[in-house]
Amino acid sequence: MPERAQILPGTLDLLSLKAVSLGPLYGYGILLRIEQISHGALLIEQGALYPALFRLVRQGLLKAHWDTSENNRRTKFYELTTAGRKRFAPGGGRLELFFHRKNLGVATLGSHL
């Protein structure tokens, strides 16, 4: 089994925003998307993800709403807000620069935080 990468504090916020950039996702879907975009290099635990999601909602970068999942369960979905999209927009924020330079975000953030 390949060795899993360790991520720096704050990186999970960026990865979560990247995960929902294509559309609304529920918590477990965000975990799967992060694993997918990192090609399995990152495996985030739910106990780490949900505090990051709550933090992003408080910061106004994500909004949360209840809806029905594909297995017909009531689930909280997260999506980018206008402020989150601006932060994520090409040339408009640090996220695209981070993912462009780090190609998946598995590296030191340096001054891009």
Give the tags.
43% helix; 3 strands; Arc Repressor Mutant, subunit A; 5 helices; three-stranded antiparallel β-sheet
Summarize the structure.
The protein is α+β, with helices and mostly antiparallel strands. It has five helices and three strands, in the order αβααββαα.
Describe the structure.
It is a single chain. With 113 residues, this protein is α+β, with helices and mostly antiparallel strands. The chain has a single domain, classed as Orthogonal Bundle (Arc Repressor Mutant, subunit A), CATH 1.10.10.10. It is 43% helix and 14% strand. The chain is built from five helices and three strands, in the order H-E-H-H-E-E-H-H. The chain has helices at residues 11-19, 27-37, 46-58, 82-88, 94-102; strands at residues 25-26, 62-68, 74-80. Strands 1-3-2 form a three-stranded antiparallel sheet. Strand 2 (62-68) and strand 3 form a beta hairpin. Helix 1 (11-19) crosses helix 2 and helix 1 (11-19) crosses helix 3 (46-58). The radius of gyration is 14 Å and the shape is globular. It starts with 10 loop residues before the first helix and ends in an 11-residue tail after the last helix. The model is unreliable at 104-113 (pLDDT under 50).
SSE map:
Blueprint: H1 11-19, E1 25-26, H2 27-37, H3 46-58, E2 62-68, E3 74-80, H4 82-88, H5 94-102
Antiparallel strand pairs: 1-3, 2-3
Helix pairs in contact: 1-2, 1-3
